[in-house]
UniProtKB/TrEMBL annotation:
Topology versus the membrane: Single-pass membrane protein
Catalytic activity field: trimethylamine + NADPH + O2 = trimethylamine N-oxide + NADP(+) + H2O; N,N-dimethylaniline + NADPH + O2 + H(+) = N,N-dimethylaniline N-oxide + NADP(+) + H2O; hypotaurine + NADPH + O2 + H(+) = taurine + NADP(+) + H2O; hypotaurine + NADH + O2 + H(+) = taurine + NAD(+) + H2O
Keywords, in A-Z order: Endoplasmic reticulum, FAD, Flavoprotein, Membrane, Monooxygenase, NADP, Oxidoreductase, Transmembrane, Transmembrane helix
Originating organism: Callaeas wilsoni (North Island kokako)
The protein's name in its UniProt record: Flavin-containing monooxygenase 1
Function field: Broad spectrum monooxygenase that catalyzes the oxygenation of a wide variety of nitrogen- and sulfur-containing compounds including xenobiotics. Catalyzes the S-oxygenation of hypotaurine to produce taurine, an organic osmolyte involved in cell volume regulation as well as a variety of cytoprotective and developmental processes.
GO cellular component, one term: endoplasmic reticulum membrane
One of the Pfam families matching this protein, by short name: FMO-like
Amino acid sequence: TGMRVAVVGAGVSGLTATKCCLDEGLEPTCFEQSQDIGGLWRYTEHIEAGRPSLYPSVISNTSKEMSAFSDFPYPEDFPVFLPNALLLDYLRRYAEHFSLREHIRLGTTVVSIRKHPSFATTGQWNVVTEAGGKQTSDVFDAVMVCSGSFSEPSLPLHCFPGIERFRGQYFHSRQYKHPDVFRGKRVLVVGMGNSGVDIAVEASHVAAKVTISTTRGAWLLSRVFEHGYPWDMVLNTRFMSLIKTNLPRPLSWWLMNYKVNQRFNHKNYGLQPEKRYFLPLLNDDLPSYILTGRITIKPGVKEFKDNSVVFHDCPEEEPIDIVVFCTGYVVSFPFLEESVVRVENKHASLYKYVFPTHLQKPTLAVLGLIKPLGGNMPVAEMQARWVTRVFKGRAANVSPPVPQNAPDAGHTEWLVYLDTLASFIGAKPSVLGLLCTDPWLALTIFFGPCSPYQYRLGGPGRWEGARQAILTQWDRVLKPTRTRVPAASSSSFPSLLIVVGFLLLLAAVILGF
């Protein structure tokens, strides 16, 4: 019999983990505590304990070509950014297409995962699961933890003096579903992540007043980027990545700062972040809502009073009725022993964000924890491809020479991370190699968007359709929006030659300094 692998959770990471196990001839059993697949992307009206919670208006932050699984492009008629229901539909098609359902046990909770007594030699795990009130214990050769990091809200009330005397209502963004609760109210949104900004924008349609309190500010990107192209197809290219990673950090920060401030001057809108790099937010509405007075940006909260709040560096009190804490989530693995994955200040000690650094055998992996600026699906899939090769003893680089402490994930460039894992399994595309054999593809790969299909051109898991998928990616982007004019033949993103010429000039200028 093959190697038995337990997969915890049937969301984005769990589905691709199950599929990659099958690709490598392993025997996956995927345990999902709820009654259906989809994880974060399966919207439910009621909030279930231990499960992520979406609000109905959530739309993907990354475009479909940049967030597809690498051997399964989105249908061409799907919109470029996906409402949550369509994303769920895609995940269901993926499960269907690769026959994953028969390996998934729904309504089954993983209670505990402990080292088997023979772990030192076999690397096996005892996995206890519960279904219908009955517990079962099984032995697995390896474990893939795909339970995500959006189930346990982080609500540090002790950081908000006076909250206990505040008479209004307050809740964590996880509880948010519909804007009706804000009707006619003065709303304060604390924290400025993607959810915070989304919720503030929605609230402002019905609320009397909306204020966002942010300590550190943020850069803001719009899904609709330069010339109306999706932001990630313009920014996440090998060419851009090369510039960003080879410039000295202050210069690279300046470049990004210049780019994001072209749309609007962040200082004038009270948004300019302090001088260190963290992930930009994605929102298409905030600047115009600030400009039209529907949303006001304020500094961090100093303290709450009975019916009002005081901000740092602002003497006057601001009356408020309702507070939404958009303060993020805590990463937790209730079914694992503390010693297996140590979580300190929101970071787990994991090699490449995947393998616990101090296990004698690399037979347990955590997927989908890293959130770089780019699509999560290709990242989870690449992690799964690497992990399943490691389980089989086929991939390089598992025991790190020194345990690494997870640095700020914001510094990990999406493309660089994908390339690193791809090189471990021999699936990283060689632009120079292709330049000789397939120059058009090479240029498209280097100057065009780094779409996930690039990682299926060669190596284990090579997919015949990869080249075609790359050369037609812009067609699938334009199809759903060019609905009033007949679709032209394959229009390669603004005439590639002009772009290439301009970029070579730019490269000359940069290297010239």
